[in-house]
């Protein structure tokens, strides 16, 4: 096998969703394609960094892609002569100093995850099967999935929020997540109560503050939310303020979720050491597409299990097909879905139907990104 080209394109997100901190209408995502030749036949691996930050075009084009393409071809292959995601990642990160993760971690993840898509396509199997075999895990046939929405739309109001959540239930989801922190407390509690009324069970409703609150406000919100007995309270404060997170878990009996904005194994080590996370209760949401790819994510799971957590407490952030395959391949607790926002990347392909809150990946080779109609045309342009 020989890697012949790597292409990247910044693709804008469609729509105008906003949470308590960020307006996503101007956000972009790096779509990456690895083009290789094996036995005279072309093969293509496709992935993207994830949703919720920005494309990393400069980092990829100026640093990482040239390093990989300049490497001796055999140095990027494993013992069987196929692409090695770990070798590609190591090459992309050559001469990068420790620390300073952020966008660099997402850029590298796009390359590494495209390797996994390529490997699965070479085996003509869905990526979750390839992932499970590589890590010696029995893959899950289907995954518990919740619909993430409830963003702030200026023209929607409570009636629009109710319609949105009812639509998710009609699609086959049985649990949802909504945003808080972008409105006064009383107004947001009215939004929470409206969603609980639609879903019928507060234990199937999670709320996400996206790191919005300083410590005193996070504690006030924890006290206000406690009586509802929600599924979880997500990112009450800055994701690296582990003392704040610890303060919330000390006073809040319900589950706390965090981790989507941690981009390395050392970050996760610090979270479990200092963040007050409780085995059997709290939720970890690290995202391989934001943190150097699947290999780094698997090492994060090792950290969790080494500190007494079950991997079923892991629910990857991102709401897209790549993380659905990762959750199924690594037998995680579940996965997020964006059925109504962040197109063309958010949500799953039409063949992935939710049934009683569970979704199974299709049999499409790789991550199946080409099965998403609004994404397929862009992939075809990038890889032609």
From TrEMBL:
Q: For this protein, what does the record note about how its cofactor is bound?
A: Binds 1 Mg(2+) ion per subunit.
Which GO BP terms sit in this record? carbohydrate catabolic process
Record-listed Mg(2+) binding positions: 208, 234, 260
Cofactor(s) in the UniProt record: Mg(2+)
Q: Where is the Mandelate racemase/muconate lactonizing enzyme C-terminal domain?
A: 158-255
The molecular function terms in GO held by this entry are: D(-)-tartrate dehydratase activity; magnesium ion binding
Keyword tags:
Magnesium, Metal-binding
Q: Where is the active site?
A: 179 (acceptor), 317 (proton donor/acceptor)
Q: Which SMART domains match?
A: MR_MLE
Stated name of the protein: Mandelate racemase
Q: Which organism is it from?
A: Mycobacterium vicinigordonae
């Amino acid at each position: 096998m020989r890697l012949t080209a790597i292409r990247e394109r910044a693709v804008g997100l469609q729509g105008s969703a906003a949470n308590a901190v960020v307006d996503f209408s101007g956000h972009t995502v790096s779509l990456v394609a690895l083009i290789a030749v094996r036995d005279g036949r072309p093969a293509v691996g496709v992935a993207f960094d994830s949703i919720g930050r920005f494309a990393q075009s400069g980092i990829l084009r100026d640093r990482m892609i040239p390093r990989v393409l300049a490497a001796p071809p055999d140095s990027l292959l494993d013992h069987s002569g196929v692409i090695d995601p770990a070798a590609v990642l190591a090459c992309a990160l050559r001469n990068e100093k420790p620390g300073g993760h952020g966008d660099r971690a997402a850029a590298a993840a796009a390359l590494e995850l495209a390797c996994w898509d390529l490997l699965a396509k070479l085996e003509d199997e869905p990526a979750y099967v390839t992932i499970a075999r590589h890590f010696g895990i029995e893959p899950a046939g289907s995954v518990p999935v919740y619909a993430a929405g409830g963003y702030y739309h200026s023209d929607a109001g409570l009636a629009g929020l109710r319609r949105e959540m009812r639509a998710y239930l009609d699609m086959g989801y049985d649990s949802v997540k909504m945003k808080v922190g972008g409105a006064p407390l009383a107004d947001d509690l009215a939004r929470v109560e409206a969603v609980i009324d639609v879903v019928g069970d507060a234990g199937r409703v999670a709320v996400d503050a996206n790191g919005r609150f300083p410590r005193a406000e996070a504690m006030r919100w924890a006290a206000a939310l406690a009586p509802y007995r929600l599924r979880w309270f997500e990112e009450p404060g800055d994701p690296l303020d582990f003392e704040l997170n610890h303060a919330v878990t000390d006073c809040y009996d319900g589950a706390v979720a965090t981790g989507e904005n941690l981009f390395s194994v050392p970050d996760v080590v610090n979270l479990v050491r200092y963040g007050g996370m409780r085995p059997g209760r709290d939720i970890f949401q690290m995202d391989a597409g934001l943190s150097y790819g699947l290999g780094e994510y698997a090492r994060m799971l090792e950290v969790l299990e080494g500190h007494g957590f079950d991997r079923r407490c892991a629910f990857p952030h991102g709401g897209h097909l790549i993380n659905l395959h990762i959750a199924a391949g690594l037998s995680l607790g579940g996965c997020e879905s964006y059925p109504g926002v962040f197109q063309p990347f958010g949500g799953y392909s039409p063949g992935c139907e939710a049934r009683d809150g569970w979704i199974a990946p299709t049999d499409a080779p790789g991550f199946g990104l080409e099965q998403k109609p609004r994404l397929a045309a862009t992939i075809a342009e990038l890889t032609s």
